[in-house]
Amino acid sequence: MRRVVILAVVFFLLLTSLAGADNKDKLLGVWVLKDNANSIKIIKEGDLYFVIEFVNQKHELFISGDGTRAIFIEYGKGPDWSTSMLSLKGNAITRMHFSEDYEWEPSQYVFYKKQ
User: Fold this and answer.
1) If we measure between CA atoms, which residue out of 103, 67, 65 comes closest to residue 86?
2) Which long-range contacts does 36-43 make (Cβ < 8 Å, 24+ apart)?
3) pTM for this structure?
4) Chain centroid to CA 97
5) Positive or negative torsion for Cα 115, 58, 9, 85
6) Strand pairing category for 69-75 and 92-98
7) Contact by Cβ (8 Å): 63, 24
8) pLDDT tens across 40-70, in order?
9) Helical H runs in the chain?
10) Is the pLDDT of residue 14 over 90?
């Protein structure tokens, strides 16, 4: 099953390499939870995009061609890692994670563009 996940991530990364910068740029900015309890910041440095979350944890983003989804890998202590996706719909970004069935499912975190 781990191979399937790795192949899915590689396929997603290949698709993102075909994306135009204009679509990706709509993710840029500060996004906050409805209650302002937490926020994420999406930035661009050169040709690379990053999400900054929590206490300045920075992860490189791989953005889909239409600019509505971005995937990133979080590395923990030791050899463990997890994959998260940010899904843009309108003015909201939902954080997604893999379920036990290796399907994307929404988490409790929905961020809104800070005005």
Assistant:
1) 67
2) 38/109, 39/111, 39/114, 40/86, 40/93, 40/111, 42/70, 42/86
3) 0.73
4) 10
5) negative
6) unpaired
7) yes
8) 999 999 989 999 987 678 888 999 989 999 9
9) 2-16, 21-25
10) no
User: Structural domain boundaries of the chain?
Assistant: 2-113
Torsion of CA 44, 52, 90, 32, to 10 degrees: -140
CATH number of 2-113: 2.40.128.210
**Residue whose token pair is 């239409």:** 66
Burial per residue of 75-100, b for 16 or more beta-carbon CB atoms within 10 angstroms, e otherwise? eeeeeeeebbbbbbeeeebbbbeeee
Give bridge partners of residue 49 from the DSSP assignment: 44, 61
Is the Cβ–Cβ distance between 33 and 53 less than 8 Å?
no
